[in-house]
Amino acid sequence: MTSSPAKTLEQGIEARLGDALAHETRPGYTGYRVEAARLVEAARTLRDDFHYDYLSCVTGVDQLPEGKLEVVYHLFRTQGGGALVLHTLLPRDDPHLPSLVSLFPGAELQEREAYDMYGIRFDGHPDLRRILMWEGFAGWPMRKDWKEAFYEQEGKPFDARWPGGRARRSEDQNPFGSNVEYPPGFTLEGYVPEGEDALYASFGRIEPGGNGSGLRTDRMLINLGPQHPSTHGIFRMVAVLEGETIVDIKPVVGYLHRNHEKIGERNTFLMNMPFTDRLDYINSLSNNFGYALAVEKLMGIRPPERAEYIRVIMAELGRISNHLWFIGFLLNDLGAYFTPALYAIQDRELILDLFEAITGSRMMCNYFRFGGVARDLPEGALERIRELVEERLPHKIDELDEFLSGSEILRGRSIGVGVLPPERAIAFAAAGPVLRASGVAYDVRRAEPYGIYDRFDFDVAVRTHGDVYDRYLIRLDEMRESLKIVRQALRDIPAGEIQTGKATYQVRVPAGESYARVDGPKGELGYYVVSNGKPNPWRYHVRPPSFISLTPLGEMCRGQKIADAVVILGSIDITLGEVDR
Amino acid sequence: MSEGPDVSVTPIPPELQGKVTITSLDKIYNWGRRNSVWPMFFGLACCAIEMICTAASRFDLSRFGMEIMRPSPRQADLLIVSGTVTKKMAPQIVRLYDQMAEPKYVLAMGACASGGGPFKEGYNVVPGIDQFIPVDVYVPGCPPTPQALLHGLIHLQHKIDGQSLREVAWYRRETAAEVPLPLLGPDLINPGQAGLLRERAAQASAQGGAASPTLPSS
Which one has a higher pLDDT value, A527 or B203? Predict the structure, then answer.
């Protein structure tokens, strides 16, 4: 893309909204600053007149030195192109600003997260409750002046761990022998747990219903999970039912919230790389990819050619292994208990063997580095990959297609179920296959190519019905496209270096912000990193595609049968490590 | 061998010859149990994926009679804690453990379940499930490979082999007490620490509401 249309667009925006938007002047920052009072107006104009219709990422930042809290918005156009970043600064003592949920419903869960982590209130939000922590938890954990019970120091490496330092078990230093702390004077006597009243109250009054045929029925509220065999981990849904029909359903998350971002801000930049593996643990390589890109953007470096090709090959193999897993477990949710899953896992194991040979680990690859990859491909790896993508996997995908796609039960259970129309999919900022199955040809690899994706010839897989069946078919399409990309990469991969500059443990990252996104198997995976020039990031935020794709769950499930909720959830393809972080 | 039964006096009927073996009750009881340990179908995090791979055709848990994963705690013998235990999830896991019928075993799979792992310092992470429920086998790894999990399960079988009917807890007259559920207050509350909590509160009020315990900085 040339810079002139982008320039025209920028001039157009400034002409229309010049008085509401001010250029961001902090060094290393981009985008505009907007007052809380004019946020909604600016966002509406950007959406309606400039086609910034995809509000990808909403997050809070604690600007403690300035005594402010900040909310950062990343808007994109589904036609393609880069981000428009809006910053809103708020006073720390009473942080509140208008909610954007009425314009972009996809912001709902993200705004709740910002409230939960920073205590920023979003006026007009339909359901502002804690989301990752529980109701009644003391404190806003992501604020810089809030310290966890096992707190040692602002940044790693901790002094106690250096040679000569005295490392002690954190449990031994805590009076309770665990990582807990309570407000002063707190005892069990007189303590009333908040429980889940707020959650159940958010459904409003549950009126007795009728099924339209004169039968008097009761509406019923049921919980699925967190321990449930078909919720793909510890995920919980609360549903209001009328007979078997879903009246309303809400996701309840946070059961695997393991403080990725708080720990990430104590870690040095490189230390975060193995942590990103554990976000979407089915597919660690795309996670590495996005994070490496975000930090490379700040550092202003690019990996050498060979490393670029290795990255693409690994990321696409990861996508195939993820989609194989997805198809197996979607069929599990449909009641084909484990038979398709066993066939799918069989070939996933072959890919994992390759990962183990190349990176040293089956699942947690920790393979990418800033400006390269950790090590070169071992001898014979390319031949093994070639054999896999030429001989084995195409047949496997055809086999799955042949045995499953025509199955009457699969078709009966999934066609027309959980429909998400394209305009709603965009509004909800649904990501990746969920968005594309609704007929929106939006793929970050094409819309804003990263790495060397602009060199490959592949199609963006699109399906048009937006139901569960199309979300299943699109995974087959995507695997075929990934094979195409890997074949081209195998053909073109050059010999040479795999790392720009010297590989170091402690990288120097200039101050500034950066947002990098990749099209992972679950969709747009973004990393928002703010550096202040220190060894560890000031802010480290992950835009998790499967978390945000959960926002339309209620809309997709309403009016369906409760058994379909399980299938609809399965078709979104969530990984709890990424949803809860 | 004058001590053994006199075969010449009590002849073995021909239809039983070569088909009878003599063993101790403990041995036959444990032989049955060790080869039918049904794990609970319950995954927490990354380790659950490797647990599923262990159950799939390549590593094949059914070689050990363990392939029947039961989603209900009432029918399960083994709780594989496969992943990070968060504070929000801890009450659920303790309740599942309480709901399991004896004999029951717990396997802490991976670094997180054993001791918090890479996420130990997190504000929502329980540093090891053994803070709440007793663990029989710890399997290291992040995540442990299927081979490592199998190794842990074989260890569990050895443990079962060593148990005796005479001593096991579940045939005693008195029933074992349930593990009290942790509570979600301002932070995770272990009901067993109620006394300690009261003590700290008294101390705080004596000092005029000093802040909660702070750690030395190094």
Answer: A527
Contacts of A183 in chain B (CB under 8 A): 186, 212
What tokens were used for A560? 């369906």
DSSP letter (8 states) at residue A561: B
Asked whether the beta carbons of A30 and A513 are under 8 A apart, the reply is yes
B193 to A176: CB separation less than 8 angstroms, yes or no: yes
| Count of pairs with CB atoms under 8 A, one residue in A, one in B | 202
Q: How many angstroms separate the CA of residue B91 from the nearest CA in chain A?
A: 11
pLDDT digits (tens, 9 = 90+) for A401-452: 999 898 888 899 899 898 999 999 999 999 889 999 999 999 999 888 998 9
A249-273 residue pLDDT tens: 999 999 999 999 999 999 999 999 9
Other CB atoms within 10 Å distance of the CB of residue A267:
21
pLDDT at B156: 94
Q: At how many degrees (to 10) do helices A339-359 and A393-400 cross?
A: 160
pLDDT exceeds 50 at position A41 = yes
Three-class DSSP category at A62: strand
Residues 6+ apart with CB under 8 A from A363: A277, A281, A284, A352, A355, B46, B49, B50, B143
| Residue A339 near chain B (CB below 8 Å) | no
Q: What is the ipTM of this complex?
A: 0.87
Which chain B residues are Cβ-neighbours of A171 within 8 angstroms?
127
The sheet with strand A512-520 has its strands ordered as: A512-520, A523-531, A539-543
Query: Which of 76-135 (A) contact B at CB < 8 A?
Result: 132-134
Domains by residue range for chain A, with CATH: 5-123 (3.30.460.80), 260-580 (1.10.645.10)
In chain B, residues with a C-beta closer than 8 Å to the C-beta of A536 are none
